[in-house]
Amino acid sequence: MRVGLVTDGGCPYVSGDTARWCDRLVRGLGQHDFDVYALGPDRRRDGGERPTPLPPQVRRVRTEPPRTTGTHEVAYGRRARRRFTECYGELVAAMTAGASVATPVTAPDSASGELADRFRNALYGLAELARDEGAPAGALCSDTALRALERACRAPGAPRTAREARVPELLAVAAHLEHALRPLSLDWYGDDGLGAADLCHATTGGRTALAGLLVRHFSGVPLLVTEYGVQLRSRYLGAGPGTATPAVRALLAAFHGRLAAEVYRAATLLTPGNAHARRWQERCGADRARIRTVHPGMAADRFTQAGESPDRADPHTLVWVGRVEPGKDLVSLLHAFAEVRKERPEARLRIVGAPLGVEGAAYLGHCRALAAQLFPDEADGVHAVGDNPVSFEEIGGPEAPTPADAYAAGAVVVLSSVVEGFPVGLVEAMLCGRATVSTDVGAVVEVIGGTGLVVPPRNPRALAEACAGLLRDPERRARLGAAARARALELFTVEQNIAAFHGIYLEIVSHSPVRRVVLDGTGAPLPFATPAESRVPGHWTAPTPRALPGWATATPVRATAPATAEVPR
Prior knowledge:
This protein has helices spanning 16-28, 78-96, 110-133, 137-140, 143-154, 160-163, 167-180, 207-219, 231-238, 246-266, 275-283, 304-307, 330-343, 357-374, 403-408, 424-431, 444-448, 460-471, 474-491, 494-511; strands at 2-7, 33-38, 58-63, 199-202, 223-227, 269-272, 314-321, 348-352, 390-393, 410-415, 435-439, 453-455, 517-519, 556-558. It is of the alpha/beta class. A six-stranded parallel sheet has the order 3-2-1-4-5-6, with helices on both faces. The protein has a six-stranded parallel sheet with strand order 9-8-7-10-11-12, sandwiched between helices.
């Protein structure tokens, strides 16, 4: 089958867990053809990361063109401007109605269902306007859009938070909406693009899934949405008091909540990566019958040597591996380790990871200072060099050249986060056969499944007791490590992930075939252009006219030859 894979700019570029997962998925499903549509900046064009070599099943790659700077004047005629004003005004009116600072979208009632219908109709109205009259990028940045947003915020019945929005805040919201709605301006949805696919697979929610919504609306292509980190949840967590004013946070949360609800309603199937993400989708109105939980797949071969050699670990060492940022709560880990040292003075703690951005660098400096304060350098004698029991390292250094070496160095791997989605580092530790102590956040309990110790977050005393208990009991560490490795190999491997998506692809295409007539070069119907499963009678198929053959009842389209990679310059 032909799959349109819509990404957020990571694939085919090596950048983060999502990009690596996309690459493994495409390479593992070699029996299908893939067209990759990458939203976001082209890192090759921007002089950044180099793309990975593409497998032969990738027919082409299309990237979002860069946003042109310059005039924001609306190029529409009078009728098109009126149509844009109506649709955009209805969109922001549905967005602002019921906006609040921190309340997520819940399962729809009658009132919220009416607002969802208004938002949906306005969104697709803008999409049809873009198809008929051209890209609305200029209109979304225009004074017309700003005035429509202001009217919606000042309308009777608008929440107080929206009514208090001032011009700078409205400008910030309008700029964010222009970025989020940028997929409306793309020319990807015709028969020479996503419209020719048998299945559209969006690798995350938000504006990535919006591209899938549009091709489903225009061409009837079934939509599969995979969320390993829930975009809506990330928006709520990222909209902290220090990031924007209450009015901006409330309006953006309302918009993303409405968009997520429409994605969950329209998607043929949803594949969250864990039960935590699944609960968020159900809370936002997703139908439980259309959800399939598929855990991320990890490359287990990188950790085979560490997993089969548990004796390599230092029996007195705790290890933490990850990206250094405030959400990882290394401060609690350092205070917990101070308690561990009171019982086991020989214990050591290795913190392995690089800071994430400027905030992460500042947080790392704070943690280094705290470690120096809690654990002054110790020496065995007056002539010996002092040594701190806490070390800060990075992957690639002489002590930890690879993640597997970092995990293998310790007897116990610790996760101290206060915020976590799917704990990839925890799965890697399990593949290395190490006992783990984790905080009860995100999908940790689902991943561990009884093969490690779980404590409440922000509780250094509980964290210390669990770590000290495992350090003093090597037999228990060995049992938990072996059970953790067996669980990870059963549930979280690349092979399991690929097999699950292969079955889901076939399920979607067989139950929701795309009804199109494809002609060959001579103008005759192309044999076998429609999957055989679409001919099987069932409740999912539309009734076929009996008077004419099926291929004569739809508008013919010409078959297109495989295209080469297409990257805007």
